[in-house]
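Hi R.,

Here's the chain you asked about this morning:
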Amino acid sequence: MTLFPLPAFSDNYIWILHNGERALVVDPGEAPGVKDWLTQRGLSLDTIFITHHHADHTGGVTSLRETTGARVIGPAGEPMPEPLRRVAAGDTVHALGMAFEVLEVPGHTSGHIAFFAANAGGVPLLFCGDTLFSAGCGRLFEGTPAQMLDSLSRLAALPESTQVCCTHEYTLSNLRFALEVEPDNSALVAYAEKCQQQRDRNLPTLPSSIGVEKAINPFLRSHVPTVERSARAHQTDSAPGPLGVFTALRAWKNVFQ
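And here is the predicted structure, written out as tokens:
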């Protein structure tokens, strides 16, 4: 299996997984770039996964489906470009000979889902849309902090070797915030240096991994004392417990420059 993050718009990635003949495309916000990429490599489009309804993730679906005949699979509870197979938590989807478990991860949108394969060419693989970013998480456009914290906790429980395929190149800006929260986190400092080197070479910082994110992502670390102290220093009236810490972090990140 070959995994490729196809850049789109200013900072999106359309993920493409293929076996040399057939391809799976995730969250295609636009179609021309996908069509060109597949044509240049002689690949046929088999399946399209959609994680949530935002246009920068769905804008190319109709054109790709109509020109390739690919089947489309997306969340049960959100407006989607019809026709498609709608799936929810507990469903299993098979594509390219692999089994993907559907996870419900609301917060960024109310019906957001993720696709997890325990074995994708020898490694676990997660397509998480805009729920989890490297060193960050999605804004809460439709969900609550409690929903997002629960969703992120569900993802953090996946195997640490899981490849995390986020759909935006937000890593450097997220890392600036993470370093403000935890400036003495040596794993975070080293990761920030690595990611800066990647971007300096015009290379993606993704995929990340669950293990890396648990070590450096403040939104997966609301239970860590250093993160809690920073969050509560910034928002002194925050509620007790990890949810209060997470809520304070998300509010802080929303206004962080």
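One quick note: The radius of gyration is 18 Å.

Cheers,
M.
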